[in-house]
Design a protein that fits this description.
homodimer; eight-stranded mixed beta sheet; alpha/beta; about 15% strand
């Protein structure tokens, strides 16, 4: 039996979204609800997939079926395609399963040709309207179907205006338009080497093909990648009888939302233009009227429209975004869909709908896009003020939020200026650990070098500070000025950054603080009722920890101890340790670090108020703690009172060919057990002190050994930890428990997780490294070739942003099952960047992890995503 | 029920090797054969393991059992431990499952103290003998059990000799010896702060503990690691009644082999000393006599010994290595074991034993150690000449064989000197691809830098040329001289290298060519009868390919095409390709490479005479083809007629943080499909041309895509290959088949092997990369910390030399099973370094691979190992 590739609107419904696309499914649903929808049919997404499978051609079967349904449409409408006397004109529009900008949009008035237009002119008694429709069709078809630049048609129009001395399109007469059509067609023939297609059937099939083709244009591919849309979904095509909003002053067209998409307010929101086609609204020549004015202009249609809005919102149980046309006083619905909205509106609407009794709490939780919450957690530009912003460049949106301040070029200046009350934005070639204090003093950070995982980006995200990174066009003119796309910024000049879009503006744009309203708390409360996954945070400072607790973190899943070492005094001691040649020297150097590190941990324990805290032991290779440039080495050697050549020899000996696969993680503890010993003293000592101060808390330190690949390796380090911790606890005379666990981030550890679990009391999946090792490419280098992979559709996702559930996920599932085999109650978490990604969180829920851990500003997102995962997979 | 930890010799047998150790099991076996073995018992290897499990102490249970068996020994011997009137004296010797130098050897005469010695003197009627035995015991016990340096006792002896004006130990009187004993004990007490233990039971337990302890000394650990001996095997301890070879001229001691261990000749081989204990033979004060002289000195014992030899060889069905003592005319056997032998002897003996009808062909194949064949495949030093060699230093044994020649310092000189008839050894800081021709012209290569996998090492092994690498002590004095540990070498000076040991000698040592005798061919033929695994070779040149065929390779499993690109003309074109900015430029550059590369392949096809050839497409990152130093870049830019800064920008853009995980393998083909296209033309073009010349062959090119991580990635590259190959085949009008397969070297590919197999017609496991990614450490960097891992007994093997069957092996098994699920007849091979390692080959056999591929000089080893695997796992 052959597949059905075409459906009349009357044959479909809203559930058939996968097959008919969003637009087609909703047109069908509205048709069946008895709403006024112009007749039409939908060519399915499967026809699109088949088109690609057949080598980008519409096969005979599908072709025949389209024309069979065209016949049915003719029957429904009582008009005939290509019939001069009673022509059927149609619109052709794309409609994928998920709304997808970047694809071909709309072709109107299809079915016109030199003959039909004459009949149409007679039929409508409006030659000017008919010829205007025809020239619009030629223009649109040439542009979107045949890819002739629109601009060249505008040039012809402008020339004709100049000849006639007129200013507006509307001043052209029907005769003018006839001449324009001739010129358009001549230009078309000249450019394409063939006549403009006059056969409406050819026009239709070409338009359908153009829609299919547009599914795979670069913008669409990019959009899909950004939004997790599989490339094999395909798009549907909607062919619909034309109705005309430009048939006179009793006609019009508009768009509207059932509620305010910016605020969520329960009030119709939208605009319309009388005597216009959709494209006129977009063109912005005339200013549209607001939707409530429609009551004055077309009261009957307006009453009917309000009725339709209520029906649709009740039916879809969500705020609707609609397109409509009024033809000679009659209302026609051309589209409805769940409306896009700001995060604030999303919360308001979800809470309102629950209060109105329209949806359940579960549905409300499902209705809010977790990622959208991000916008609520950071300052944003004031919308009015933004209109005056001068966009200079766009670079990587490294850390969200808006920032405005005066340009400074060093961490020291940032601190000094801030102390005297200035707001500053720090601009750097790139940042390094020494800049952290300056970064904290800045409203935002702009770097010329470095990607989404550069030092600046990672640290800024952790701090919740706006950051735009990797702006390669920045040209430093001096220590105190730079030029960017022609604009020169000197120290003290205002600059504004949008870390959510990567936009860089000259001048000051006002920002508004994050507004976590009551709705936010309400929805989060509901989410917490449904989720099973715990949400922890990755935090290295008391400040981050406290912020995360405010956002609802239930503990810390990852304290990266290395970040603590970059503070001047500790860095000095760490460097002394590195140049040590005996274990005794090393111990002496570490003794200096111990009290400082212990104080860090005490601060974190205080901030977490008894919640669990997982501390990961030193992870990065030691060369990260020493300089690389000869001059820096010379200065440091002087400071350290040693010969520059000796220090250089040490630095050189730390060089690695593949640092990612080098001497790091627990390998450091195996070669230098003193480090693990010192860190254990610091963690357990801090826990004992804090517990003494707060007897009501029950602190159970969780110690996490990174980069383990073998159970013996873990046991070796664990033995050091246990020996040190037990001695300390006995000495303090307290009764304190602690857990020792490991990261699962090396494929071998995942493969042998049953053995690892003999020693590990918990696993935390380090999916950053696990992804690198499983794919065999490093995050720092993959950028050079991943674009080719996206283009070739080999990978559709950045596996570092979105967990590769197929490959890496297989290893994780294996490790979970092997780990539980050995230790049924093993605690399982994830602390890679994926811990804050909604799709990855759903995976974590499904494989049975205990918690996800993410940066503080992602905690609310994770809470919501965890709730959605639980509801979806109930 | 408690475990039995001690066995009388009479209770054991040769099959109990794991429990009793080799020595103990064979003593038991000889006892049960009725041979004259002094009574004794064995403390098991499990007691050793328990000793470590109990925190290095002998628990009460085992302690009691030892003394229970001591009682039994007293009953058997009719003597009593510590009894002055009829004392039982014992020897205590270690004995592991596998023979293991580096462990504690022997303590003789245990049971003596101040009292017992007096009785012993009376009993033997030989006070001098008794006191000499006692002082030897004190010396041995202090040294090996209590770790007091032997040397200090020698000092005491020398002082006494000086006082008395005597020269030889034998000149001491009994009274002298008594005084010596006092001095020994005084020294002992002073050093240890306690008296020398006079209680024989304490002596015994301390000696047993010392044996257990010695299992874990650094030399033993090192030896185990080198020889794949697990650390949890433990050692047994043999306690045996003393017999004395030093009781007069009718007593003696000796060692002998049933056949000549150097040549395999069927003739008793060994030596003995009359009136001596074992240590005297080793000390070399008197020259031992050859075994056939024993007939004259002790005819009765000799006859009996010959009888014993025949019995033992017949019983063990292998050449035996024995220790014996004659006490007052009576023969006692103290040890027998299968004798170590040279590779040549091993072959001779195996073939002889088959011819004698003593063993089967299968047993003969099992008897030869595959690794030992290596020695037969390369030149060796003449044994006589070697005695005059002056050993200067030892560095890494990078490529086996011996070499002797005049020192040259550049590839150009090596070629020039060779052309005028000189034999040369090339000495370099390190080698690079441009040196290849010079390396081929040299007898051997010596480098100051670089490890076992450095360029010099890898290329030399491939060529079968001797190489010693990483000799860090070399100090270059000028372009034409260097100093090494005090010896200066100028150009033209003779130097000799042993690539099997890493030894470097000053002066000329004669070498002897490899002698692949008839026995070699015979045994290989037998091996081929039994093995199931095919053996292929890794070869990049016709020369290597031809060599491998001579060694029995059944095909090529890996042609590394990148090595071909380093030849001047090709390198030039490759560099042009790298600096190209458009696909057209890239194609033009590759067009220049095509005919050259096709010629390379034609040469290889010719050499392989129709055998299968698997070509791997370009694998290394492109930066390997461009210089890194500014000066080199400047020169190259001039050559290439471009600006130095532009070339530098290209080189810089190729920099990677982790090149091992960077833009390489099929990632190059995804970004630059032109490369895969060119390589396909070269491979298929070469196959077509060669097939035309040799219609009797049936060439089926095998094209291997490296570093695949996803089936879509493979398909993308395969599509390019298929399109290009099919066009070429059609154009040539021939009927040629070809296969496209992939390396499995990325963990993700192994995990998703069922999907990969949809496109891959064969898998070849690239275990080098797979090991790196699975462990998460790079081969180039792991050296820095692996020693700590060996010391901590976390890893006992270098996973790059010996396949990690546990972790990496689990991935391989998974991939094999998933691959077969999709494609039951999929061809499976391995082409990493592990393909030439016998233990890894056994694993490959067991998981069901089709073939292993290794360097040409490893082919015979692999053939034998494959046969042994098949026989063992029948």
């Amino acid at each position: 039996m052959s597949k059905k590739y075409v459906y009349l609107f009357a044959e479909g419904n809203a559930q058939m979204r996968a097959l008919l696309g969003g637009k087609g499914a909703n047109l069908a649903e509205m048709t069946n609800l008895g709403l006024p929808v112009p007749y039409g049919f939908t060519v399915t997404t499967e026809a699109c997939t088949q088109y690609y499978a057949d080598g980008k051609r519409i096969n005979d079967e599908i072709n025949a079926e389209i024309f069979e349904y065209l016949k049915k449409l003719e029957a429904q409408s009582g008009k005939t395609f290509g019939d001069k006397n009673n022509p059927l004109l149609v619109s052709v529009r794309s409609g994928a399963r998920a709304s997808m900008p970047g694809m071909m949009d709309t072709i109107l008035n299809l079915g016109l040709n030199d003959e039909v237009v004459e009949g149409f002119a007679e039929l409508t008694q409006n030659p000017r309207f008919a010829y205007d429709s025809y020239r619009r069709f030629i223009q649109m078809f040439s542009d979107v179907v045949m890819e002739l630049p629109k601009h060249n048609f505008e040039v012809i129009i402008d020339e004709m205006k100049a000849e006639r001395g007129i200013k507006l399109d509307t001043e052209f007469t029907a005769e003018d338009l006839k001449e324009m059509i001739k010129k358009f067609k001549a230009y078309y023939a000249e450019q394409k080497g063939e006549e403009f297609p006059s056969d409406p059937k050819v026009q239709l099939i070409e338009a359908v093909k153009a829609v299919f083709r547009s599914w795979d244009n670069p913008r669409a591919i990019y959009y899909r990648r950004m939004n997790d849309i599989p490339s094999d979904w395909g798009t549907a095509v909607n062919v619909q009888m034309m109705v005309f909003g430009n048939m006179g002053n009793d006609s019009g067209t508009g768009v509207a939302f059932t509620r305010n998409p910016a605020t969520g307010e329960k009030k119709l929101f939208g605009e319309f233009l009388m005597n216009a086609q959709g494209e006129d609204v977009v063109a912005g020549v005339r200013t549209p009227q607001t939707i409530d004015q429609l009551g004055e202009v077309a009261p009957k249609a307006y009453e009917q429209f309000k009725q339709v809005c209520a029906t649709l919102e009740n039916h879809y149980r969500d705020m609707q975004d609609m397109e409509f046309t009024i033809e000679r006083g009659n209302l026609f619905m051309l589209q409805t869909r769940n409306g896009k909205r700001t995060a604030a509106a999303a919360l308001q609407i979800a809470v309102d709908l629950v209060n109105e009794g329209m949806i359940s709490k579960e549905e409300a939780v499902m209705q809010v896009e977790p990622k959208s919450l991000d916008a609520l957690l950071h300052p944003q530009f004031n919308a009015e003020s933004l209109k005056n912003g001068k966009l200079i460049a766009t670079a990587l949106a490294a850390s969200p939020g808006a920032a405005c301040g005066k340009v400074v070029f060093s961490a020291a200046d940032a601190i000094e200026w801030k102390n005297r009350g200035e707001k500053v934005v720090m601009v750097r070639l790139e940042t390094s650990p020494e800049d952290i204090e300056g970064m904290a003093a800045s409203q935002g950070i702009l770097t010329a070098r470095g990607g989404m995982t550069s030092h600046a980006a990672v640290v800024a995200r952790g701090m919740g500070t706006c950051c735009v990174s990797g702006c390669g066009d920045i040209r430093f003119l001096s220590d105190k000025s730079f030029e960017l796309n022609g604009t020169v910024f000197n120290e003290g000049d205002y600059i504004s950054l949008d870390g959510t879009t990567g936009n860089i503006y000259a001048g000051a744009i006002q920002t508004e603080p994050a507004s976590i309203s009551g709705n936010f708390a309400t929805l989060m409360g509901w989410a917490d009722e449904f989720r099973r996954l715990q949400v922890r945070t990755n935090a290295d400072t008391p400040r981050d920890a406290a912020q995360a607790v405010k956002f609802g973190a239930q503990g810390i899943g990852l304290v990266r101890t290395e970040h603590m070492f970059f503070e001047a005094e500790k860095l000095k001691a760490i460097r002394e340790m590195i140049v040590s040649t005996t274990p005794e020297q090393r111990k002496a150097a570490l003794e200096k670090v111990l009290p400082l590190q212990q104080k860090d941990f005490e601060g974190i324990y205080e901030a977490m108020e008894g919640r669990p805290v997982t501390v990961r032991y030193l992870d990065p290779p030691l060369h990260e703690f020493v300089p690389t440039e000869d001059e820096d080495i010379r200065v440091l050697a002087e400071e350290m009172n040693m010969k520059a050549e000796d220090l250089k020899a040490v630095c050189d000996s730390l060089h690695e060919f593949n640092p990612m696969m080098g001497h790091r993680g627990c390998r450091l503890a195996v070669t230098y057990p003193e480090i693990a010993e010192m860190q254990t003293k610091a963690v357990v000592g801090a826990a004992i002190n804090t517990q003494k101060k707060h007897p009501e808390w029950n602190i159970v330190p969780e110690i996490m050994i990174p980069l383990v690949g073998d159970v013996k390796e873990l046991k070796y380090v664990k033995d050091i930890v246990v020996k040190t911790a037990d001695a300390l606890i006995a000495e303090a005379g307290v009764d304190m428990k602690y857990h020792v666990g490991t990261m699962i981030e090396i494929p071998r550890a995942a493969l042998l997780a049953d053995e690892i679990a003999q020693e590990a009391e918990f696993f935390s999946f380090g999916t950053n490294d696990l992804t690198q090792m499983t794919f065999g490419f490093s995050r720092d280098d993959a950028g050079k070739f991943l674009d080719s992979y996206y283009a070739a559709k080999i990978y559709e996702q950045d596996p570092f942003a979105k967990l590769d559930q197929h490959g890496v996920g297989k290893l994780i599932k294996m490790a979970v099952s092997l780990g539980k085999q050995t230790r049924p109650d093993i605690k399982l978490g994830i602390c890679g960047e994926h811990g804050g990604d909604p799709a990855s969180i759903e995976f974590c829920h499904n494989v049975g992890l205990t918690y996800v851990s993410c940066s503080p500003y992602r905690v609310p997102i994770a809470r919501l995503a965890a709730a959605q995962a639980a509801i979806k997979n109930k």
